[in-house]
Amino acid sequence: MAATLNTPDENVWGTLFGEGSSDLLTEINSSVRFDYRLIEEDIEGSIAHVSMLGHVGALPAQDMAEILAGLRVLQAQARAGELTLDPSLEDVHMNVEHCLRQLIGPVAGRLHTARSRNDQVALDAKMWVRRAEARLDRHLALLIDVISTRAVEFAEVAMPGFTHLQAAQPVSFGHHLLAYVEMFLRDRDRIRSAHTRADESPLGAAALAGTSHPIDPFFTARALGFSSPMRNSMDAVSDRDFMLDLLAIGSILATHISRLGEELVLWSTAQFGYVQLPAELAAGSSIMPQKRNPDVAELIRGKSGRVIGNLVALLTVLKGLPLSYSRDLQEDKEALFDTFDTLDVSLRSAIALMSGLTVDTARMAADATVGNTLATDVADWLVVRHGLPFREAHLSVAQLVRSLGERGQQLHGADPAWIRAFAPVFKDLPDEVLTLQHSLASRTSPGGTAPASVRAAAAAARVRNHSRSPLPGPPDEGPDTKETDQ
Fold first, then answer.
1. H or E element, residue 256
2. Fold designation for 118-366+461-465
3. Active site (catalytic) residues
C-alpha cells in the first residue's frame, strides 16, 4: 500500500520558532516541485547511510532492519511513481523521511543520525549528475556511430568547402561530417573527465563540520559507487563544481549540436538544396502550403542558448557565496535539470536527423566547383610541375581566374586549350587537374579529405568511440525518467 502524506499540524521547524511559517516562506522555500527528481537517489543514499550506521554499531540491528525495510518499500513506490509529495515539507528529503515515519513509526527518526540535509542533498545531486552524464554519453556514442557510418557512405561525394561562408576548395561530404565526429568525441572525453572529478562522496560531512558519531564514510562511498569520500567537510557541502562541470560541458556540446543544426538548416533550403530532412521531423506552414520548415534542426540550434544561460546562472549564484552552505544553493537544481533535459532531447533529435537525412549528391557536386574552387589545385600543380614558388604560382592562377571572369567563365568548364594558351606556365596543364576527382584524391595529407583517408578516418573514429567504456549508470532510462506525483 502506498504511503500517503498529510500536511503536519505545525511547520516542521515549529518546535524551534514557536509558530508556523508564513505562506510566503513556504512558497519561496519549497523545492519539491523540482527536487522530486532526486527521490530515487535520496532513498538509495539513505539505505547506504543506515546500513553504515548499523555496520559501525551506531544503530541497533533491529532498528536498522526496520528502517531498511521501510526505505525499500518507498523505493519501490518511487520507481512506480506512486509517492505523493507535500510542498509544505520543503523538499524531497523531508518528504521521504515523513513517508518513512508513516510506514514504520518513530524509529524512522533514527534515519538522520550523523547526517544533515547539507551533505544529503550534495550526495543526491552528485549521484544524479553522474547518472545524467552516463545517459548523455550513451547518446553521444550512438550519434558518433551514425555520423561515422554516413561519412563512409558519402566519402566520394564532393561538396564545396567554405571559409568565411565563401566557396574555398572541394571537400568530401563524408570529410565534412567527420569534423562533427571529432567534436563529439571531445565531448565524450570531457564528460569522462567530469565523471572522474565527481567520484567522491560528500556523505559524512554532516552540516559542515563532520560529526561526533562513529561513522565510516568509506563504507557509504563504496556502497554508492564512489571511489572515496571527500576530504574536507566544508567543501563537501558547498561544492557544486560537479554541476558546473556538467553545465560547462553541456554548453560546449550544445554549441556543437547548434552548429550542426545551423548547417542542416542552410543545406535544406531551396537555394542550397543539398539535403532533405526526414519528413517526420519537418513542419508545415499555417499559411504557405509549399513550406517544409526544418523545425527540429532550428530547435537544436536555438536550445543552445538555454544551456549556456544555465551555466551563467549557476556561476552567478556561486560567485559570492561564503563557506559553507547557504540556501542560495537551492537555485542550482532547476538549471541542472533543464540543461540535462535540453541536451537529452537535442542529442536524440540530432541522431534522428542524421539517420534519416537524404542527400542530393549531384547538387552538392555541381556546387563544388562554383567559385573557382579548383584554383589552389592549379597553383599546387605549378609548384610541383614547374618548381614555382607558391606566391608566384598564386599570382599566375589569380591572373588566370581574373581573365576567365572577364569572359564570364570559371576554371571548371573552361576550355582547357584556352587555359594552356593563356601563359607558358600552363602549356602542359593536364585536363584532370580541373576535375573534382583529382582535387579530392590529391588531398592525402593526414586529416585530409581524400576519399580513402575519409574511409580510414571513419573506421578509426568508430574504434575510438567504442574504446571508451560505458560510464556506470542505469542501463537505459538514466536519471528520473519516471514521474513522481507532487
1. helix 241-267
2. Fumarase C; Chain A, domain 2 (1.20.200)
3. 164, 285
pLDDT, tens digit, 9 for 90 and up, residues 21-45: 678 887 887 788 888 999 999 999 9
Residue with cell 532550428: 298
Fold of 21-113: Fumarase C; Chain B, domain 1 (1.10.275)
- Please give the DSSP secondary-structure letter assigned to residue 370: T
- Candidates 159, 169, 176; CA nearest to 375 is 169
Report yes or no: 298 and 269 within 8 Å, Cβ to Cβ.
Answer: no
Name residues whose C-beta falls within 8 Å of residue 162's C-beta, 6 or more positions apart in sequence: 168
Joined grid coordinates for residue 313? 546562472
Q: Which amino acid is at 152?
A: V
Model confidence band, residue 88 (pLDDT cutoffs 50, 70, 90): confident
Q: Which residue has the cell 572525453?
A: 189
Contact at 8 Å (CB) between 187 and 252? Answer: yes
pTM above 0.70, yes or no: yes
CA 199, distance to chain mean position in Å, is 19
Q: Three cell numbers at 456?
A: 580510414
Predicted local confidence at residue 10, as pLDDT: 40
* Strands of 294-389, DSSP E: 358-359
